[in-house]
Structures are given as C-alpha cells and as structure tokens.
UniProtKB/TrEMBL annotation, chain B:
It is a multi-pass membrane protein. Coiled coil: none annotated. NCBIfam families: HEQRo_perm_3TM. Belongs to the binding-protein-dependent transport system permease family. HisMQ subfamily. The keyword Signal does not apply. Gene3D superfamilies: MetI-like. This is Amino acid ABC transporter permease. Residues 21-209 form the ABC transmembrane type-1 domain. One of its GO terms (cellular component) is ATP-binding cassette (ABC) transporter complex.
Amino acid sequence: MTMTRRPFLRSLCGLVAGVAVAGVIGSTDAHADVLANVQKTGTLRVAVPQDFPPFGSVGTDLKPRGYDIDMANLIGKELGVKVELIPVTSTNRIPYLTTGKADLVISSLGKNPDREKVIDFSDAYAPFFNGVFGPEDVALSKVEELDGKTVGVTRGSVEDLELTKIASPKVTIKRFEDNNATISAYLTGQVQFVATGNVVAAAVNDMTKLRRLGAKFLIKNSPCYVGYAKGEAALGAKLNAIIAKAKQDGSLDAIAQRWLNAPLPKDL
Amino acid sequence: MAYQFDFAPVFEHTNLLLSGAGFTLALTAVGAVLGIGLGIVGAICRAWRIRPFDSVFGVYVEIIRNTPFLVQLFFIFFGLPALGIKMTEWQAAVLAMVINLGAYSTEIIRAGIQATPRGQLEAAASLALSRFQIFRHVVLRPALAKVWPALTSQVIIVMLGSAVCSQIATEELTFAANFIQSRNFRAFETYFVTTALYFVMALLIRQLLMQIGQRYVVGRAG
C-alpha cells in the first residue's frame, strides 16, 4: 500500500509544480510582449516627472516639459506610436511600472541593486552626476589640484560627504546652509569652485551669465536610465537600439544641449 | 519604536563643538568691544546733536534696528562683492555684529547720557573740570552705569544671534551643530548639547559683564 502511494504523492507534487510553472509562464506570456502591445494599441504610456526640472516640470502652458519628456517623445517617434505621459513622483515611479500602469519609466531614474531586483534598465540616456564646477577659463581636472583652493558645498549633501572623503586637508571646504547660498557664494566670488550636481549647474548657467559654471571633475556618477518591466527582452533591445541611434545622429545631444546647457558626455 | 537616545555620535565631535563655541565667544568678544565703542561714539553724537554726525547716526540706527540681522549679514557677504568689497566669512560676521550691536548700543547709551541732569554738568563746570574730565566722569561713566544691565542683555542677544553666521559658512557653534547633525542625523542629541552650550555661555557672559560693570563702571560711578 505504502509502496503504491509514494509514486502517487510524487506525481501529485509533480503535477502541482507543473501547474505552478505553467501558470507563471502563462502569466508572463499574457502581458509579456509590452512592445507588441504598444504597437498594437499605438500608444506608449510613459511615466515622467513633473516636479524635477530640467528633467520634467510643468511649463507656463501647463504642459509637461523637460529632458525626460523629450526623451519619451523621441522613443515614441522611433516606435511610430503616440506617447501618453503619466506624471509621477520619485516615490511612485517604480510602482507605476511594476503594476503595469506605465510601459516605461523615463523619470531621471538612477540604477542601483535594489531597483535592479524589480525592474530592468536600458542603456543610459542622460548624464546625472555630482562634480566640482568652476570658472570655464580655469583648468582643473582632478581632486589633487584643489589643494589650497576654496570649494563651496551645501552642507550634508551627497557632494559634501563624498568631497570630504576624497579631498586632502589642504582644501578649504566651505559648507553653506542650502543650494542657494552655495551658488551665491560662487557667483559673488566668495569661493573659487563649487561641488554640486550637473543639473544644478545647468539651471544656474541658464539663469545667470555672471560667472558660468564649467564642469571640472566628477565626484559621483549616476546617469539616468529608462526603466521597463522585468522579462521584456524585446522591449529592452529596441530601447537600446533607439538610444544608440539617438546618440549617433545627435538627437540626444540636442536634448542635452536644450535642457542641460552642456553637450552629452562622450562616455555616457 | 520609541526613539533611542544616543549621545555618543555627538560627543565624537566634541572638538568641533568646542572650537565652534570658542569661535562664537571670540566673535562675541570682538563684536561687543567694537560695537559698544561704536555705540558710545554714536550716543554722544546723537545726545549732544553734533552735526552732521547726529543725523548720520540717526539714519544708521533706524536702518539697522528695522532690518533683520540675517539680511544685513547676507548683504555684507553676498551683496557687497558686487561693489568690489569682498570679505571672508569671519570679517563679514564680525562686521555684521559690530554694525548691529553699534546701532542698538547707540540708543541704549544715549538714553543713559540723556538721563544725566543738566545741573550736574553745570556743577562740574563750576568746579573747573576740563571738558574731557566732565565727559569722562560726569557724562559717560554714570550713563554706562545706568544702562549697564541693558547693554549686557544686548551683548548676549548678539552672541545668540551670531548663530545665523553659520549661514555664510562661518564655523561657529551653530555651524558645528549643523555639521554634526548632517553627518549623524542625531538632531535631538546634537541640538540638545548645543542648546546647553549656548545657555552656559550666555550665563558666563552675563556673570563676566556684571563683574566688569561692578568693578569698572558702576562701582566708581557713584
């Protein structure tokens, strides 16, 4: 008796496992091909920021505008479909993707191991880095050359913590209360250089011609990637092809010039 | 999930806090001496209507007493470079404190001078005291004696107000506190210790100024 029950139990287990596997495969199959789905419906749903200029903000005409919106439209054009923009915040942008409310997240999204567990990333499409910036006519290319110089930084920011680690004690780091004070200190000549984000530098260069900020060297690099649902290899390949083409033909460079006031870094 | 108090991350930075406190006291000392000096000059100009300085000091007092200290500081540090006047954060902090205390002490000391009855001046003149002797013994010292407690309070207000100098990266006590807090995120512990330090420093300054007042001002004025 017991001898006959064993194979039965075993086959039952096998059956349950088989059904489960089939179910998983089936369910991925069901919404698997986002790319095919997008082409069928003719609409690409993209989650974009609306509170993070210059990547995404609301213009005076109340329409979203920015680097990420231009990028979404570029992908839509290459795919030959209509783009539907979904405004998201930095906290809900990934849930929008994982719950299938959006096909892509183009929301100044950086890559990290935690995020890579839940979604996939395309190649980088936008530069996002902290670095040391200073007058365009002053040569400075590495942290050692900062010795004896004065750098302004916003207290407690990522660039403060990183620069404090890498700079020698000969560098005078002046820590200001907020971004505005840091930038004012640079613009009025109270500090020779500032450590800040490329986005902040671009915004400053956009607003004032007083003392333009040129990128000197990189402190921490965290470029932006397009996020898409896990297991969408076809979509990923298509995205990477589009990004590669846009880098080649200069259309991505044009977007960078428009929103960041700087050419696309070559190593992106 | 009660908050776990932990002061150790704050005391790791004891040196920073002490040097910050030292700089705050140094700023206050320089600011107080120069500021009260400026106040004495201003008070005499205003009380004795020495033209045109009385109206100059009048305008100065009104501007400074009716604008925020932080704005004055920003004006000196971020505004003046547009006119080619560039200062380090320490110079800017000291200058802002001197200018600020100068305005308040002008008014405080002027009140003391005007409270001296004219009859005393006439009595001093009839005793054949020189102008300088009259000024020193009959005008200034009794005036300072009358307003010494008010001046002491004003110096402490300026010391506490120097906290905003941290905004222009002056590395005094509040800067140290903000710096530590931005590194260990122990806001309660950091600001608790800082508050205690300010409190002790204020008490010390009050005691010190009272001693000085008893010894050199009030004691000899009567």
